[in-house]
Amino acid sequence: MNERITKAVIPAAGLGTRFLPATKAMPKEMLPVVDKPAIQYVVEEAVSAGLTDILMVTGRNKNALENHFDRVAELEATLEAKGDTAKLETVNESTGLADMHYVRQGDPMGLGHAVHRAKMHVGDEPFAVLLGDDLIDARDPLLSRMLVEQSRRDASIVALLEVDPDQIHLYGAAAVESTDDPEVVRITGLVEKPAKEAAPSNYAVIGRYVLKPEVFDVLEGTTPCRGGEIQLTDALMTMAADPGSSGVYGVVFRGRRYDTGDKLEYIKAVVQLAAERDDLGPDLRAWLAAYVTELEPVFASH
Ligand code: G1P
Fold this sequence. Notes:
The chain is an alpha/beta fold. It folds into two domains: 7-258, Spore Coat Polysaccharide Biosynthesis Protein SpsA, Chain A (Alpha-Beta Complex), CATH 3.90.550.10; 262-302, no CATH class. Helices cover 35% and strands 23% of the residues. The protein has helices at 38-48, 63-68, 73-82, 85-93, 111-116, 119-122, 143-153, 214-220, 232-241, 263-275, 281-300, and strands spanning 7-11, 32-33, 36-37, 53-58, 99-104, 127-130, 134-136, 156-162, 172-178, 184-192, 203-211, 248-252, 257-259. Strands 8-11-9-10-12 form a five-stranded mixed barrel. Strand 2 (32-33) and strand 3 (36-37) form a beta hairpin. The chain is globular and about 60 Å long. The site of 1-O-phosphono-alpha-D-glucopyranose has 13 residues, from strand 11 and helix 9.
């Protein structure tokens, strides 16, 4: 049995160009999903899997992230004076969540480089990486399952999702072999964003990883690809192919995942999560049904 994993790394240095102009002066991680910034869901997911030490790899224009997880004395005092405990609790939710740390990425040299920036903080222990664009529904836990597999196999673990073959070019794609567990596969190959025809399978790597610290040395030896980016996928491929290492395994996720890095998927996530909530759901569902009925004849004539 390994030591318990406590550290999570959240790369959050991206420019968020897909959401301009909303992200011109605000980090994309702060876009609200219903009434909480996307990044808070990710930190909450890490915390509920038992990871309490969070390192965010940030960049310029990302101060709002640090502020969101810090106290805001003025607002707290005002709410307290008003006796508005419900709102006060909401404000404090993100403050006391975890032990937050921040490091800047510096050069924008890709996901592999961002993860490597965590080397000093993480040290010689396995750790999790959570990408902010992927939201995993809290009702379908994935990370805790990955932590168990990491400890059981003493290997690095990625999360895999079976996607439509037309979508595989958006992801790292994995070549896999089955294991004795139907939910776990051994990774034999990885290709970053392959064309549909070149993809080894429709198993896509989604943004959850539990990595052994060896990944840092491997990243140091990973050649940047076109555009000067160091791919995490390439480092994992090296680890999967190394017969001297304990390999890389994939936990196959079949639950609900929302891609908040894509405009249409983001809108769907907001609507879906709000429609399922007790406070907003009944009214939103009734309105949605009426709206769809209203829309159909309008768009049928186009
Ligand atoms: C990154 C990884 C890719 C992975 C994806 C998951 O790509 O490089 O392997 O499949 O995250 O969301 P990005 O979407 O940051 O371009």
